[in-house]
Design a protein that fits this description.
SH3 type barrels, BirA Bifunctional Protein, domain 2, 12 strands, five-stranded antiparallel beta sheet, single chain, 2 domains, seven-stranded mixed beta sheet, binds biotin, alpha+beta, 6 helices
C-alpha cells in the first residue's frame, strides 16, 4: 500500500502555491467533503481552503448519484470565490487540472468525457462536482469536489467494474495520493490564476474531450436524446446534432458514449 499520510503539514510543505491548498483540513473519515467545505465557505474560509477525507461514508456524485470513496482514493473539496464570469470555466478548470496531474505523477494520458468525467483507457478514473451559491450576479462561493480512484482494486467493486478504473489498476502498482493531491493543487492554482488574468482554458478543454464526434445518449432532467456530439460552446454546453438533423444545446447533463 502506498503512503497514507495525508496530514495538512505533508500537503502544505513546500507546495509552491500562493493560496490553493494553503489551508488544509483533513478528516480520516467523514460523510462528504462537499458538506464540510460548504460550511467552511459559509463561515468565510480563506479562498483555496481544501477539505480532504481519508474516506467518505456518504460521498455524492452528480445528478444525486452516490460516489464510492473508500480508503486509498482521493476525496477532496476546494473552496473558491470566483467572479460570475468565470463560473462556467470552473468545470473545465477542474477536469484539466486532474488530466495534467495524472500525467505528471503517473505518465498516464487521460481524457475528459463531457462535461467533466476523467477517463483513462475509456474508463472513469475521476468524477468532479461543482456546486455554487449564487445570488443574482454575485457568487457567494463555489465548491469544487474531486474524487480520484487512486489505489482501488476494481475487482472488489463489481458494481462499477465495467465503467471505472483506478490509477493503481492501470499501472499495476500503488500510486502516492500525496503526490497527486499536491500536483492537483498546483495545477488548480495555475489555471485559476490564468482565468483571473483573462486567459481562456476552453480550447484546451475542448481538445481534451473524448466525446466530440461520437454518437452519444444524453440525459438531463427527465429528458433523454441521442445524436452526435458536434461541439461544445464556450460556456461548456454540449452541441448535439440529433438524429432528425436539428441541433440542441445542452447546458448540463450526463452523456453515455454509444460507439
Ligand atoms: C460524479 O462523477 O458524479 C462526481 C463525483 C464527485 C465526487 C467527489 S469526492 C469529493 C467530493 N465529495 C463528495 O461527496 N463528492 C465529491
Amino acid at each position: 500500500m502506498a503512503e497514507n499520510n495525508l496530514s495538512p503539514a505533508s500537503i502544505i510543505s513546500n507546495l509552491g502555491t500562493h493560496f490553493i491548498g494553503q489551508q488544509v483540513i483533513y478528516y480520516p473519515c467523514l460523510t462528504s467533503t462537499m458538506e464540510v467545505a460548504k460550511q467552511e465557505a459559509q463561515q468565510g474560509a480563506a479562498e483555496g481552503t481544501v477539505i480532504i477525507a481519508g474516506e467518505q461514508t456518504v460521498g455524492r456524485g452528480r445528478i444525486k448519484r452516490a460516489w464510492l470513496s473508500p480508503k486509498g482514493n482521493i476525496a477532496l473539496s476546494l473552496v473558491l470565490y470566483p467572479s460570475a464570469v468565470n463560473l462556467p470555466s470552473l468545470i473545465m478548470l477542474a477536469s484539466l487540472a486532474v488530466v495534467h496531474s495524472i500525467e505528471a505523477v503517473t505518465g498516464l494520458k487521460s481524457q475528459v468525457k463531457w462535461p467533466n468525467d476523467v477517463l483513462v483507457n475509456g474508463r472513469k478514473v475521476c468524477g468532479i462536482l461543482v456546486e455554487s451559491s449564487v445570488r443574482g450576479n454575485i457568487v457567494d462561493y463555489t465548491i469544487i469536489g474531486i474524487g480520484v480512484n487512486v489505489n482501488l482494486r476494481l475487482s472488489d467493486f463489481p458494481e462499477i467494474l465495467s465503467t471505472a478504473t483506478s490509477l493503481s489498476d492501470e499501472l499495476g502498482r500503488d500510486v502516492s495520493r500525496l503526490s497527486v493531491i499536491r500536483r492537483l493543487l498546483l495545477e488548480v492554482e495555475k489555471l485559476y490564476l490564468s482565468l483571473q488574468a483573462g486567459g481562456s482554458i476552453y480550447e484546451e478543454w475542448r481538445d481534451s474531450l473524448v466525446t466530440l464526434g461520437r454518437r452519444v445518449r444524453v440525459k438531463w432532467g427527465k429528458a433523454v436524446c441521442e445524436g452526435v456530439a458536434e461541439s461544445v460552446a464556450r460556456d461548456g454546453s454540449l452541441l448535439l446534432r440529433r438524429l432528425d438533423g436539428s441541433l440542441s444545446k445542452i447546458v448540463a447533463g450526463d452523456a453515455t458514449l454509444r460507439d
